[in-house]
Inverse folding.
């Protein structure tokens, strides 16, 4: 038989078309918003087949919905994975990602430089499920190896860390995960699949806050877990939810019945069924629209970010700039390896004058918006120590790159000179 | 591990479009086994599926009589779907090759995870189409957009509107 390459179409084509064929009944070309909960069964036997997972189809929108499914397929395609599960937020995606892997008392290892909200979620809220996270400095992969125990079920890191301009050495982390027989989970929110093809570098699962660059306009909360389909859940006895009989489905073994579709099937049929953190169809639609222009936006985000970072690096009131796209960054080589098209548009800098000066800069901006989000078409500015990373201890804040003098920028798509001019006047006002 | 197999969508589409009767070797009467899922799904799509399994011979599975061997199946078979471990596949392939003209067999299909490159070469040399390490249920669902409903990557991109009319 003849052979076909894995993906016949390029990334930009898949941004627009993957998951979205014309709607067969009406011919509608844009993916419709299926603002609908229940789906009619042909007969009771069809209903039984659906509930038994014996056939494909929609039952109830908490589990699957056609608009959300279009986004899932698009993200699975762009990341090069087997399947995807969308959910209500990036934080929901993190719970959903760990849910098939963890039993009470199980552990995982995470980078100590994650988004502050993730550190709180893993370190505090996950404890209530008796899921235990040890945070390590993953710049030294040996730290990860040393933290492994027989109950470690995953390694978690961000491809580009929020907010620090820090890049993870994905290949080294993946080698450790592989050796331990556990998956590497990468939060690819800040890079997006356009900048960082994390599966190619050994990630087994990818999580996203689709709230950020994927939707792109600061309108729609969402998250996604994407499965590479290449991790063998039955290689050891660490993952009973996937490789041992599931009582709620009469003893069905997900890994045996669904093969490389086991993880994503479980995430819908058990994860969303019982955690209930479903994505709204309207948000899926907005995110599908956003992704249609992802490559164009990310290229511009990166160009503008490099322009702003270079401007700040030359500025006399700026103590330091942490952007992995700059030659001066210790992460420059890792960025060139893992995200050669650009190091993203979220980074930090320190103002001379510390905490007080930092607050003044943030409050003096007229064009950059002072708010807690990132990945918007608008440029955003924030003082992490007093906002997103507020729940952390001083020590955790420093480790996470969110010390008292740190200002985080998420550079948008405006005219570069206008962004630098706004920062220039804000720095001037902070100095006066 | 040998190289992963790749089959073009066009080739899989034509195999699935041309087949009407499938002999499923290793079909299980247990409603919660993967083969039962696949058989039920393929029946729903309009295929006649004849179960072959010596341990269930004489029983009915999903309304069809089960036979002990391929040779005992009393009607023509377009496609033989092998739901057995890889090391059992070769003997079934050789039986299918021997019965090819008598039963009208055109395709040998080995399930997801089932692969025997030597047996595949023998079948191809005998003029049979061979698909290995794939599930006909998953491929049918993928090619008809049903797999996408579960958030899976079908790798299919098309701007064509599908027609609703009698075939
Ligand atoms: C890197 C990263 N991961 C996860 C999240 C959480 O996403 P959400 O706000 O959609 O729950 C965020 C949000 O800021 C983030 O920046």
């Amino acid at each position: 038989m003849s052979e076909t390459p894995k993906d016949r179409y390029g990334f930009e084509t898949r941004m627009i078309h993957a998951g979205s064929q014309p709607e067969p009944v009406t011919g509608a070309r844009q993916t419709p918003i299926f603002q609908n909960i229940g789906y009619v069964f042909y007969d009771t036997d069809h209903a039984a087949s659906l509930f038994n997972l014996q056939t494909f189809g929609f039952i109830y929108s908490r589990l699957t919905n056609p608009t959300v499914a279009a986004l899932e397929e698009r993200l699975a395609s762009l990341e090069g994975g087997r399947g995807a599960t969308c959910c209500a937020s990036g934080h929901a995606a993190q719970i959903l990602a760990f849910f098939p892997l963890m039993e009470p008392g199980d552990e995982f290892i995470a980078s100590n430089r994650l988004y502050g909200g993730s550190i709180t979620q893993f370190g505090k809220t996950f404890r209530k499920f008796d899921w235990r996270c040890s945070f390590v400095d993953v710049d030294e992969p040996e730290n990860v190896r040393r933290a492994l125990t027989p109950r470690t079920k995953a390694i978690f890191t961000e491809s580009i860390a929020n907010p620090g301009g820090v890049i993870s050495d994905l290949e080294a982390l993946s080698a450790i995960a592989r050796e331990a027989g556990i998956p590497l989970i990468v939060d690819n929110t800040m890079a997006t699949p356009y900048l960082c093809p994390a599966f190619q570098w050994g990630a087994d699962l990818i999580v996203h806050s689709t709230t950020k660059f994927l939707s792109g306009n600061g309108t729609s909360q969402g998250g996604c877990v994407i499965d590479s389909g290449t991790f063998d859940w039955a290689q050891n006895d660490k993952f009973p939810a996937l490789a041992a009989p599931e009582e709620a489905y009469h003893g069905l073994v997900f890994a045996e019945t669904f093969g490389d579709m086991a993880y994503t099937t479980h995430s819908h049929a058990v994860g969303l069924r019982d955690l209930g953190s479903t994505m709204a169809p309207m948000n899926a639609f907005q995110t599908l629209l956003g992704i249609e222009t992802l490559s164009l936006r990310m290229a511009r985000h990166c160009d503008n970010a490099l322009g702003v970072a270079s401007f700040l690096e030359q500025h006399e009131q700026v103590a330091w700039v942490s952007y992995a796209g700059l030659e001066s960054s210790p992460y420059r080589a890792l960025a060139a390896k893992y995200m050669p098209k650009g190091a993203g548009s979220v980074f930090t800098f320190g103002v001379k004058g510390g905490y007080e000066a930092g607050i003044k800069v943030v409050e003096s901006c007229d064009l950059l918006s002072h708010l807690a989000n990132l990945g918007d078409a608008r440029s955003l500015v924030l003082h992490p120590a007093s906002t997103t990373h507020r729940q952390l201890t001083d020590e955790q804040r420093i480790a996470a790159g969110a010390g008292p003098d740190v200002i985080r920028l998420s550079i948008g798509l405006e005219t570069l000179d206008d962004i630098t001019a706004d920062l220039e006047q804000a720095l001037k006002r902070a100095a006066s | 591990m040998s190289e992963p197999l790749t089959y073009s969508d066009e080739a899989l589409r034509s195999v699935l479009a041309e087949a009407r009767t499938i002999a499923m070797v290793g079909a299980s009467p247990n409603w919660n086994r993967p083969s039962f899922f696949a058989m039920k799904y393929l029946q729903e799509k309009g295929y006649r599926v004849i179960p072959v399994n010596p341990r269930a011979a004489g029983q009915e599975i999903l309304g069809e009589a089960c036979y002990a061997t391929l040779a005992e199946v009393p009607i023509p078979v377009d496609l033989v779907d092998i739901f057995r471990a890889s090391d059992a596949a070769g003997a079934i392939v050789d039986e299918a090759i021997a019965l090819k003209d008598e039963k009208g067999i055109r395709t040998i299909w080995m399930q997801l995870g089932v692969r025997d490159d030597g047996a595949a070469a023998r079948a191809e040399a005998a003029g049979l189409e061979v698909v290995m390490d794939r599930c006909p249920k998953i491929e049918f669902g993928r090619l008809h957009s049903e797999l996408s409903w579960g958030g899976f990557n079908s790798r299919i991109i098309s701007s064509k509107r599908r027609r609703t009319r009698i075939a």
Q: What stands out?
A: The interface with chain A takes residues 6-11, 31-32, 34, 36-37, 40-41, 44, 112-113, 129-131, 135, 138, 141, 145-162, 164 of chain B (CB under 8 Å). Residues 21 and 77 of chain B are 5 Å apart (CA to CA). Residues 86-103 of chain B form the longest helix (18 residues).
